[in-house]
Known about the structure:
Elements: H1 2-12, E1 15-16, E2 18-19, H2 28-36, E3 40-41, E4 46-47, H3 58-68, E5 80-81, H4 87-104, H5 111-114, E6 123-124
Parallel strand pairs: 2-3, 4-5
Antiparallel strand pairs: 1-6
Protein name: NodB homology domain-containing protein
Keywords: Carbohydrate metabolism, Cobalt, Hydrolase, Metal-binding, Signal
Cofactor: Co(2+)
Amino acid sequence: MIQLEAAFTNIIGKYPTYMRPPYFECGGNCLSVMDTLSYHTIFTNLDTLDWANTGNIQVSKDIFSGAINPSSPASSSWIVLAHDVHPTTVNSLAQHMIDTVAAKGYRTVTVGECLGDPAANWYRT
Length: 125
């Protein structure tokens, strides 16, 4: 994380306060280190599995819609996992997610806003 912080600082002059562990694997020791480094460790409550469905992105669209369509913005919120390194996610799934949440009346926000953190806490210098 410290090497990542240095890279972010060199590129944009600050570094984030949120971290999603790879493969969502972060046990007690990992969580303790992230806490010591003042990170919020983020998990998801909606995994599109886009990485597994690059050959048939409709499966990921169905996973997303299956969670969002029966829900209500008044009583549900989502931290969605999708990977921008996959062309099918960028070129198809992302637009589907935007259209679906807009049709349902959801608002898209940053992780920090979703968690109720003030914008001043989203990055550190």
